[in-house]
Fold these 2 entries.
Entry 1:
Amino acid sequence: MSVALALLAALNGLVLVYFLAINAVYLITTVKALQVVWQYRQRLKAFNLLDPSRAHAAPPITVLAPAYNEETTCVESVRSLLTLDYPKFEIIVINDGSSDQTMERLIGAFELVPRARLPTAELSTAQVRQIHQSRSHPNLWVIDKENGGKADALNAGVNQCNTPLLCAVDADTLLERDALTRIVRPFLEDDGTVAVGGKIRVVNNCTVRSGIVTEARLPKNFLAAVQTVEYLRAFLVGRVGWAAFNASLVISGAFGLFNRGAVVDAGGYASKRTTGETVGEDMELVVRMKRLFTDQGRPCRIEFVPDSVAWTEVPESYRVLGRQRDRWQRGLIESLTRHHHMLFRRRYGATGLVAFPVFFFLEGLGPIIELAGYIGFSIVVIAGRASGAYVIAFFVLAFAIGVVLSVAAVLIEEVAFSRYGKTRDVFRMFALAALENFGFRQLNTFWRARGLFRFVTGASAWGKMERKGFQVEGAAEAESLPS
Amino acid sequence: MIQDVLGYFGIVWRGGLLSVSEVLVVLLVCTLVVLATSLLLAAAAVAFRRRNARRRTRMDERSAAWRDAVQEVLYDGADASELSNSVSPSDVPYFLNLLLKYVRRLDGDERDTICRLAEPHLHSVLHFMSHRSPTRRMRTIQMLGELRPADAQEPVVAALDDPSPLVAMVAATTLARHHAPEHAAAILDRLARFEHWRRDFLAAMLASMGADALAALRETLRDDERTPTVRAAAADALAALSDSAAADDARDVLVTTDDVELQAATLRLLASVGRLPHLPAVRQWLDPEQALPVRLAAIRAVGRFGGPEDVAPLVGAARDDPSPWVAIAAARALKDAGASAELEILAGSDHPRSALGLQVLSEAGVS
């Protein structure tokens, strides 16, 4: 009995240390992010690197958009990509063996014709059936290939990329027109830049016109609205903060810009035909590049640009969201265990000494510790080993810290970008910052713990995202879109 | 609980620091502090939102009023000093911002007129050149660089040595764009500070100096005291400006330097402005033993001004060079050289690169 109680006490001690450590990390990154975003905003007012006089200095970019069964959104998404405001860019859509009408829709909408094209790299992929070029938009290409998964599709795109930079986006993502102009900045300023992440915003309930978000609104759906605040926190605090310490480990698969040569040198995205399949191919690539290039003594700067924006639809049902979070957690822990060699290694700088341990112990194993904490604290209270008042005080403090971090993210948003036109939306975000702590946070912990469990048991399913389509201005446009 | 945890491991909590009830108080105080911080941050967010909205409104109102007046000064001969003097001190930042937008789109006399409108107010921003914030210094450099004449650019030239590399770059780009003849040498002398910038960007910045800076750029290319990166940027700028007089310099540098980056840049320059006499110097870099960037640039140069005897090596590169980049460049060079028949042969063959022939022919609209 005494051993069990000692173990329980040790567990509670571990939870306490976890609580202190993770909140310390969040508070430090929040303060740093506030400073960085403030300076960045001031800088934007002062200097535009790619003003018209230097537009020809913009390095050409290939946008890679893998699509699997995206018949409902693929045409609108490609139209949106075609409106990008950037001097030189090419779009390669990769139809990853869709079993629906994705390919037919693309052929019909963009007058695609078969074309020969010499690959510039030889990453191993599933068989490419045919390559098409659009007659109406010569910078649009579509690769039709056998199904091989997202990473495999991206690798097929990398093989056909003949520009120095490539931009990986999800096929259902809407890029803002100036997204490429903004995200390319770190590549101009530093030749050692290998990857740059852009900011993902939630498009649910926003008004979209011709592939452009014309009015940003907070979603009416509670889950989507909570995720909006969550995304603000993740991108404006987490990504900005880690990038400021030169310790980024994640670039969202929905929108990231990469040095093409670096991606090829690193072996491309992790698929079963290259370096081994993972459900978190976006993070794995970034971690692998950081590891490989540091080992080789090559420069490897990974940046984040907070004002380069892509809009994406987030799940509005608990079932779909649960699957997504489960998958993200598996991807995270897979990437970290695959490159565990970097843990606490000084040669990887802040990444090895700080970011990797934080991601591994606090983000990767965190859900288990947190869940165990809920259970452990309950047992301690029931067993009469700690006062209920103390436990309640502890949870209230945890709740308060959660609120302050979310409110800080909203503050950063308002200081720098202020994208939500209605003040009511800002007040709703404050309310959501409090409400997410009751239920959503615990559910998220459960989903992530489940992902961790599935990682241990070897599950590899992706799960299906159910899309509603974008909210489009004008009835005619709405008719052309799926519900 | 701390007491419990320590107790299980045989450590006796003697309350030396805090008793359990005191821990509770600490937790509650922390909670209150954190919640109060949340409220403060929320209030700050709302305040920022309102302030930003107010500023936008104020800027819009002022701009609307001044826009017509500026148009009258520019095109109807209205008195510039009258408009300039009507701006209140608190509105000066807004006024200068508006003029900055105008001046970036104008040239010649119209640009001078905008500068005259700004002139009485620029002294009020001069002290920001020594501001501790780099962004404030950058903003000031933009204003002075854009709105002051070339002979009043001492503060901007001094900013080329600013401790912040980004501020120095802003100074360089501003001077390069508007005051190149007077300050080209100063910019080129500091170019080594920007070596980590992307080469294309540096070349574009230098090329924005225009024809007045050609002599200085050629001098930089020739100067072997400078770093290869700086000389390569100068070569690329000369290529962008299509400076045919630099072709001989490019050839001379090409045959004397060991640096791959500089070799490739001079070959790119020759691809842009080279002539038949330069061809022998270019051909020796077609060898598959040469570094990829050099080979690539040489192929493009040969494609641009090579003769019939160069078709065979280009066909060889298109078919057999280990690099797909070189193969693509060679196939396009064949197209530029009018050797479509060779491409058709490649396209119709069962060679692994037959797709390349088809690709380049379709780019040319042949198939």
Entry 2:
Amino acid sequence: MLRRFRKTSALIVVLVLMLSLLAGCGQEQAAEPAAPAAPENPDVILATTTSTENSGLLGVLIPKFEEQTGYKIKTVAVGTGAALKMGQNGEADVLMTHAPASEQPLVDDGYVMDYTLLMHNDFVVVGPAADPAGIKDTADASEALKKIADAKTIFISRGDDSGTHKKELKLWAAADIKPEGTWYQESGSGMGNTLNVTAEKDGYTLTDRATYLNLKENLTNLEILFEGDDSLMNIYHAMAVNPEKYDKANYDGAKAFIDYLVTPETQEVIGEYGKDKFGQPLFFPDAK
Amino acid sequence: MNTIIAGLTGALKMIFLGDPEVFRVTFLTIQVSGIATLLSIIVGIPAGVFLALKRFPGRRFVISLVNTGMGLPPTVAGLWVSVFLWRYGPFGFLKIMYTPAAMIVAQFVIASPIVMAFTIAAIGQINKKLHLQILALGASRFQYYWLLIKEARLGLLAAIIAGFGGVISEVGASMMVGGNVKGQTRVLTTATVMEVSKGNFDVAIALGTILLILAYSVTFVLTIVQQRGGNKS
């Protein structure tokens, strides 16, 4: 029995060795590109909204930045509410969000600095192609929402304190409606998932254009039914966490990233992103 | 239907053509969950043996806590580990938030109660007379524990399998403390969630398939180890 046990232990040891070996290989692969003169504190935590990550834009912007500067960006994609909270608590170095009304207090209270306008796109209301609430030819966003509420067709809200959710609540308030009842449902999740739920339930929802265009092929029954209203502007800002409030914040890295985002070259990349795939840009650069 | 087929063929392609990103994600998954399981074995089995054998006041209460810990939701574990590891949290000085190390800590917290509880059950099941027999044969304390552990081998390997299965499949904690950072903390489960939210269902199915194959392979080896000579001892 003892021998058998030894054999068993040997087998476990071999297994563990194999696994760590495999794991080791993975690490070597990860460490291959030689960074140009690595900065003193290379790790930069970027707290951002899910739309910049899910649209694939960050996947284009960040590798270039890392290559140029040697910084390593850790992208934590959460809702705008959570991203701003992380900034306010000093748990991130740089923020990229799209809820100006919620961002301003952080700027005013000195939690963040270098508040920089980056780009915009717009929100659209999507819904079933048949448009049961008839919002297609309404004059403005308030009227469109009113029609959805009157018809009591299903409306899926993000319900997650994200930038899109904040915008949606603002629009309801502007229309003077308290969305309540079985027709108004909260998905409590990101834009992509919310669109999937909306498609399954044949409902309406408010979405940023970029995420919608990205997922369009899976959302065959949904169409853009209302767009173009001024109140549907979706504005993105970047900001650095103030190192005087939080000494652990990597301000140099945050500043370098913001500087990179507003260079003419990066702004051009932002403006071009999505054109080849969707026939239209997903974001419009605004930095001057 | 097309999505399912695209997902399954995509998985095969990724495995056999060797997509470097998928390999990296898979290796990190093995690394994080493997180390977390190992640590939980190192802590969980001795602690389980101790709780199974030692009589002390409040023992049942402690065991009931451990048993409840088996059902600890990964997101709750992730939340607590986050709160402790944040820059301005009590262990912020370690600077491991959003690194694989943080994920190992979170998964260790998830796996340990599982390994411990299974160990308590496995050791507790051993015939009382065997304890006397071992001691009567003049075993030292160390030999005594060692023989008990060997005797409970079937149950202890079940503990390891359950612990590993618990952590390799969890997503909530890894997402929270790892952040799903590309090339750094992205593992199979968090990548799957992300691909679903991006609407890439075929890629998500492919990643999920790789995860299942991985979980199966490891569990298969452990099961072989568990069942070898299981009847003889």
